[in-house]
Amino acid sequence: MHVGRWKGLDKALRFVWTLLPKRTLLFGNHGDGIAQVRFPKNPIAKFVGKHRVGQYMFVNFPELSLTEWHPFSVASGPREDFVELYIRDLGDHTKRIVALSKRCAMIGRQTWIRADGPYGVHDFNYRRYEVLVLAGGGVGITPVIGLLKDIYGTPSDPPPMNDDNRCCMRCVYAVWVMPHRSDADTFLSLLEHQVRVAAERPDLPALVVEIYCTREKGPSAVQSSKLLHLGRPKFTILMDRTGHEHTDTASTLVFACGPGRMVNELWDESIKRTSAMRRIDFHHETFEF
Known about the structure:
The chain is an alpha/beta fold. The chain has helices spanning 2-19, 43-47, 92-107, 142-152, 188-200, 235-245, 260-273, and strands at residues 22-23, 26-30, 34-40, 56-60, 70-73, 82-88, 112-119, 131-137, 171-178, 206-213, 228-230, 251-258, 279-286. The strands form three sheets. A six-stranded parallel beta sheet has the order 11-10-9-8-12-13, with helices on both faces. The protein has a four-stranded antiparallel beta sheet with strand order 1-7-4-5. The longest helix is centred in the first third of the chain and has 18 residues, at 2-19. It is globular and about 55 Å long. The model has no long low-confidence stretch (mean pLDDT 87).
């Protein structure tokens, strides 16, 4: 009886929290087509551990519409006190959100937001795999970023020391594909920080990050960081590498989020290498840049 009452109270409080607008903590834009949104987590949902890797939130911007809600993948980690979203201008409503973020950034003001969630969760436990291959195309890197934050933390939220839940993981390969070099600025400094943390912390799995700019020409576009590369990733070489460098690995997780061409290529490469001696589980989310 008490459990039922608690669940009913939880739903009622979350419903009220959803209806009440909240001020964004950060509302700006990256480049021409991506809005960054940060707002407080529902304290009840955070307290009871509702926030996990791989979730999404429905959000509404009352300044644009009182009735239009859309789901977006969460880029923040479960330990952070805020929800962070990155919204690409792929449709009419998202273009209006990005335009609003530019106007707000120009005059240094925040906006109101209503949020419902979090919802969903990955249908796999990434901590049970020895090797992880994570690929994101464009803003499809968002769920990958949330997962990397859970493992390697952020500059303001370092990962816990000697977490037994990480004992299986040995190496993480993260690949990010985008059209232009400027798109990388969204997460480049965070990824560089996480690579340094992985190198300094023996209790963390090794981290290899590769960022590919498909429409840039000339090496000058990628000279600012060792993580940047021209062209498209060669997933055949990457998957061969994971096999050669981890010959005794029994389990590999491949997760891809982005354009269908990229997802299908990684899917094919995963199937080719699955055997009785090496299990490769493939999971994906598909959408275009």
